[in-house]
Amino acid sequence: MLEIKNLKVRIGDTEILRGLSLSVKAGEVHAIMGPNGSGKSTLAQVVAGHEDYVVTAGDVTYMGNNLLELDPEIRAREGIFLGFQYPVEIAGVNNAYLLKAAVNAKRLHQGLGEIDAFEFLKVAREKMATLGMDPKFLNRGVNEGFSGGEKKRNEVLQMAMLEPRLAILDETDSGLDIDALKAVAQGVNALRSPERAIVLVTHYQRLLDYIEPDHVHVLSEGRIVRSGDKSLAHELEEKGYDWLREVANA
Amino acid sequence: MSSENIESIVNRRYEHGFITDIESHGLPPGLDESVVRAISTLKKEPQFMLEWRLQAYRQWREMTEPTWAHVHYPPIDFEGISYYSAPKSDADKPQSLDEVDPKLLETYDKLGIPLHERARLAGVAVDAVFDSVSVATTFKAKLSEAGVIFCSFSEAVREHPELVQKYLGSVVPRRDNFYAALNAAVFSDGSFVYIPKGVRCPMELSTYFRINAANTGQFERTLIIADEGSHVSYLEGCTAPMRDENQLHAAVVELVALEGAEIKYSTVQNWYPGDENGVGGIYNFVTKRGDCRGDNSKISWTQVETGSAITWKYPSCLLRGNNSVGEFYSVAVANNMQQADTGTKMIHIGANTSSTIVSKGISAGHAQNAYRGLVKVMPQAHGARNHTQCDSLLIGKNCGAHTFPYMEIKNPSAKIEHEATTSKISADQLFYCRQRGISEEDAVNMIVNGFCKEVFKELPMEFAVEAQALLNVSLEGAVG
């Protein structure tokens, strides 16, 4: 589904990704781990199409097409979802309004009509219930005055409504208490399917206690230095990231 | 030769017989008493009106242009302006929509203006346009049944001189300010409304339906009187872009609400703002004031300002009656090189008067947008209340938002609240929306409309929908 080959990316004068390769197939759950500053979030932002990041080398193909040529909104409509590490507040814009606009943008792209307003509300309320979100959040400004946990749940709600083909969750676990973490994990697990791929970007192992990955990759200084199954995550937890830095520099 | 003689010779140029000439060709540029006399003659005005204009003219001569507003423009040459332009003959107008600037038609399309209205708005020759007379006739019949007078200002001066004489200048005196005095001297036409005692006007009054609305020109004058216990909602302007060869516009609007009366005045202003460099845009210097003259009266201003190169406009309320209420809801958009200095004045005079100000300023491009507001509570105004909410939204890095709130509180029982915010449409917000599949343009519209919704909900329904579309068009390309 997603093929990244020898990707080099810079922001300003700083090279952040230095030849990263990754292959994600439908039905798989990948975890990308690594110390702060290793390039995890950059990878997520580049796949989503953030224009501040400049790709200097390498290829990214998604569903067989050159992803780097597409505008961010087209990538989104083609099924790429990024759960943001720091979801932005948009005062005055109703949460339900944004959600519906997003759902409709995708539906129109797929040649479907706009979603029926009642149907939309019904589905949204159901998904909110499973995430433990108060339906009142629909009528608040987008992320306006939300706590950290509420923002992350809201990201997962958007993901659940948009049913992406490829979901990238950037540090969705950070700042969550255990209940919120469980709710978020449940929301992600509910989306696991043979047609869908999920990439979890995380600093800590604990999310992986709730969402079991098929593959774990360790990113260090802009490259994947080690890949393995979930046991790699445990190994990291024990040995820390310094151990890998030595491996990377060797 | 004495100055009187010169005057009489000059006057002779416009004596009877020359009038038809002026009617078809307009007056040459320049302003003196003879011009004022000629305008009055052309309009077949009674003597009192001529006297009023002449006094205004003499007062204007003594006044100087205000310079306190946060706007910058080259000096205006008042001698270079023609103060009466002839209505365009049908032969000079485009004969069909095919001859109209395609860019203008594209905008109509985006605004969703019905096909049959486009021709009228674009100034296509009348006989090529649909027949509006029947609509207007039905409309007039309904109004006269209710006893409502709704006509052009010129017609009111001739048909209802007693009402005009009683109320004209009673809210905005001739010498109120430089532009108001100029308007009083040379105003071309405008609207007149009188709602009799206890009457609820059966429909929203819109300049759109006023016969002879064409060519009211650059110095428009409006007078609305709501007699005791009456109610009226008035809509001014339209969302379609308005072009005019005259750069300077100085309108005056006076509202009088007697005891228990209510006037709701809604404006959508979309005068040509000039090109990206600000060339050719309209200068809009407007004096709008409402007088809550009777107890328990209410005046509400709602405005959506998107046009003009320069906007200088402060719709105000004099809260004279006890328990009277003044409201001001405003969205002012400035894009490219536009400059707006707009706001309101709420003058609390009566007891237990209350006022609400909600101002939303949006700046984009290189525009400068200023809110200027005065809340004044007079010593005798016991129990006055005001709530002011003043928000600015910035799009891009090169624009500016400025807030100049003034408060003069002379009664200790007053309760005054002021809230202000400034926010920015950030690159992060736009990327967030795009990552959810929403285009950048739609994202901007969504954020802007969210920002303005408190004001839009005050507009009559159809107007609100149009205003929303208008904002989207005005801010097109504001980001990126």
Q: How would you portray this structure in words?
A:
The complex is a heterodimer of chains A (250) and B (480). By secondary structure, chain A is of the alpha/beta class. Chain A has a single domain, classed as 3-Layer(aba) Sandwich (Rossmann fold), CATH 3.40.50.300. Helices cover 36% and strands 28% of the residues of chain A. Chain A has helices at 40-48, 72-77, 95-109, 117-130, 148-162, 178-191, 230-239, 242-249, and strands at residues 2-11, 14-24, 29-33, 54-62, 65-66, 80-83, 90-94, 141-142, 166-170, 197-202, 215-220, 223-228. In chain A, the strands form three sheets. Chain A has a six-stranded mixed sheet with strand order 6-9-10-3-11-12, sandwiched between helices. Chain A has a four-stranded antiparallel sheet with strand order 2-1-4-5, with helices on one face. In chain A, strand 1 and strand 2 (14-24) form a beta hairpin. The two termini of chain A are 32 Å apart. The model of chain A has no long low-confidence stretch (mean pLDDT 91). Chain B is α/β, with parallel strands linked by helices and 480 residues long. Chain B has one domain. Chain B has 13 helices and 19 strands. Chain B has helices spanning 3-12, 19-25, 33-42, 47-62, 102-111, 115-121, 133-146, 153-159, 161-167, 178-186, 427-435, 440-456, 461-474, and strands at 149-152, 189-195, 205-206, 220-226, 231-237, 248-249, 252-257, 262-269, 283-292, 298-305, 310-313, 316-319, 325-334, 339-348, 354-363, 368-377, 385-395, 400-409, 415-425. In chain B, helix 1 runs parallel beside helix 3 (33-42), helix 3 runs antiparallel to helix 4 (47-62) and helix 4 runs antiparallel to helix 10 (178-186). Chain B starts with a helix and ends in a 6-residue tail after the last helix. Residues 1-19, 125-134 and 209-216 of chain B have low confidence and may be disordered. The interface between A and B is medium-sized, with 30 and 20 residues.
